[in-house]
Amino acid sequence: MNRRTFFTFGAGSIAAAALAACDSFGPKSATSLLKLAERKNEKLERWLFSDGSRNRVSAAARLSGRSFPRYFISDTIPMWDEAQRGTWRLEVGGAVRNPLSLTLEDLMKMRSVTQKVDHFCVEGWTARAEWTGVRMSEIARVSGATSDAQFVDFQSFDSGYHESWDIESALHPQTLVAYGMDRAMLGPGHGAPARVHSPVKLGYKNTKYLTRIMFMPSRAGGYWSDRGYEWYGGV
Amino acid sequence: MAASGVALGSTDEARAAANPAARPQVRHHWVVRLTHWVNVVALGLMVTSGLRIFNAYPAFARRGESFCCYPFAGKPIPASLTFGGWLAGARNWHFAAMWLLFLNGLVYVGFIYLHGEWRDLVPRRGDIRDSWEMIKFYVFARPDHPHQGKHNALQKSAYFSMPILGALAVLTGLAIWKPVQFAPLTNLLGGYVWARYWHFLVMLGLVALTVVHVVMVFAVDPYSIRSMITGGYNEAKSPEARNARPFFWRRPTATRAEGGLES
What we know:
heterodimer
């Protein structure tokens, strides 16, 4: 076998082995390598993250309105049934000095902001809306989040959907607990009575149908993060 | 070969100085050959996983708006051209393989800068005229192959464009990975929707260059395949020596010993 045939055979068998070892998902042995890359990327992304970063949308920009997609994991639109479950409340607990239990009226009495921002979906589309709500940093301040609060878990009544965040992204000035959308009350298709909305995280990190905000010393995964999507999901 | 601290280069040089006739004809330095094949893997993974990501929303318009410049909106890329299996899997591959592409590109560009190979690739004043002469030769409007250096003028422009498109792929990729953290970059590219479009077009450019490159290797100079594996190349079989046009050339009749054609 001369050198040329050796290389031809060599390249051919490597290619054949690579193809045999993988379906379209890629070889199983690569999983740990992909996990390593995700951990390193998260470090880089958290380092890149700036509290001063802003998603700016011009005042004249068009809103997506009715084209803004609805999304939930339950079979039907999750609705809070007051007759069955009593008054909806947003519980704020965990690593806080003053746990809160807020009715929608309580939430609406807090210092609010209205912002027109982009919504970045992991699928690649974006949509625009004007959100009204309370900054997460305000909720952290009022509830007295302690230095143990390094992560935040946002929980919902949408069949157990939740996603946990790093504290820096949660306290970003554009991260809201929103109860209004496009100058109206948030509708059931978009997470009523209240949801998380922030342009600094991909859509799946923005829990809708919010019931509980838990400040925590460690991360708590999430619905999509536990199913293969990147936990950090930062934008 | 330019002076450098690279071990193999210095050995070659020492040997060449001692006996010019024994100088091995290494057409491509091993760093160039290695980064070339790593790039095949990296680019292959990036393009196929990127197309799988694209299939989650095979369009560009923001919700509730329209987009001028993509006639195939809503039509997914055939699954056989994609990799990663599903959106999350493809994203995980894309965000891992991007490091392979990026670091490999840095090694390649850094190496050809320090080692001198960039001289064979940068555009020069006569390149447009030389390219025109090459085109004339390829369409039989000129009988003889234009004289060339390591590469002909058309090759040069293609190989020079490749790392530039690679850099643009990285830049446009950063703009759609971090449109809020890198908002100024994303805005420079016309916003998220346009940045995503540029990223797609740059990918198409890279794919087009690659396809033309592979076709031309087989159609004009299959002898160069060996030069990208072992480094060896016989100048007597170069396209200029064979007066080779794509698909129109004959096997060299007299095969002479390699290494004896240096002068």
